[in-house]
What does this fold into?
Amino acid sequence: MNLFSEENLRFMKAALKEAMKAFENDEVPVGAVVVHNKQIIGKGYNQVETLKDPTAHAEMIAITAAANHIGNWRLNECDLYVTLEPCIMCSGAILNARINNLFFAEFDSKFGACGSLYNLPAENKYNHQVNVFSGLCAEESRSLLQEFFRNLRIIEKQNPQSYS
It folds into this structure.
């Protein structure tokens, strides 16, 4: 039995397309889309290296785009689809934006804040609760991340001075 609908799958595939943009730009391949009334209103992919900005995570960019699109920072009627479990910063933004549902593909054992290292949405300490769903397209996301880091290790071995 599939826990996710065809619609959920379609939106996560859109997030994976965003992750591919990051991959093609030598960024950690994470993508995100914000959905309102079954329409994508915000997209983002990691641009930390490109923008030289530690806050330029896919989720942050997608949330900003969505808020600009609807003209309101409150995204309580919106869902967020992201290819990797959000970190503490992004989890905070998700809670602050009052995202309704969060769907993420792959858990992040090093920085995850929605079930791995931390579980901020489940703490019930905030004035807003977000519903969290994981595992949608996890294998696709995992494969893309593994390929990225495998390629990065090869580059680092060939040119160790540039990554110290």
The longest helix spans residues 138-158.
